[in-house]
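agent> Task received from the user: take the single chain below, predict its 3D structure, and emit structure tokens. No templates, no multimer pairing.
agent> Plan: (1) validate residues, (2) run structure prediction, (3) serialize to tokens, (4) report one or two observations.
agent> Step 1 OK, no nonstandard residues flagged.
tool_call: predict_structure(input=
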Amino acid sequence: MSTYVSHPGSVVRYVDAPNLSISAAGTTFAYRDIGPRTGVPLILLNHWGAVLDNFDPPIVDGLATRHRVIAIDYRGIGASGGKAPVSVGEMAEDTIALIAALGFEKVDLLGFSLGGFVAQDIALKAPGLVRKLILTGTGPAGGKGIEKVGPVSWPRMIKGLLTLRDPKFYLFFTSTANGRRAAKAFLERLKERKSNRDKGATPVALLRQLKAIKSWGQQAPQDLGSLRIPVLIANGDNDIMVPTANSTDMARRIPGAQLVIYEDAGHGGIFQYHADFVPKALSFLDA
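)
tool_result: status=success, residues=287
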């Protein structure tokens, strides 16, 4: 296992964070770890097909001004070993094992999209483990339109190939001038890291994760009313991947949940409005 010690006064930006690895649940998981070594750590759980280089640097850096932030690769994704699970439940169990291997007894979770499914499942499976939960661009088990992520995504992925653009340009942002500007800026930020980049997800891993997403969309609703922890939910008002109605639904079902909906924004609303999202997330975590 690699270890990394931050020296007092040194601030490591996410684009410079070393690639680390740790064994848990019979697999070697890749992760990056920045921010102060005090308080409750924040674990970041990312979207379908995402690797360590798909976490938005200003969001990670902003959160790491006050919190230890750990970004992870799921099993079978990026530099993590093993085969990508075909269920959200397995991803949640992997993450619980990974948190234990890192030696944490209490964590905060920030889940985006698929990561939000995993974060909800962890909070329900291991209630004492999670202190606070941030759910972004995501929805509940059995949520509206979640099983259709594949049919919604494929045409836009093909469009990405044909226009030589990253599919996230079409999938995460609105087609307005505002959305297009935000998409370009976000995709540029993801290229900031020049060395020791993570491996991209394989087509097989993408298809396996898509199975997990589809089955999450088809499974019975979970008892979100049993979540007795602070929850912050954020999304754009026009999410075509995990329809925005799911964010409203989760906020209604989770006692005391806070809801933030960004105007003229899609699935990647928190990336478009990162300058607003980071202070909101920090004040939620620090409250």
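agent> Step 4: summary for the user.
The first strand starts at residue 20 and ends at 24.
agent> Done.
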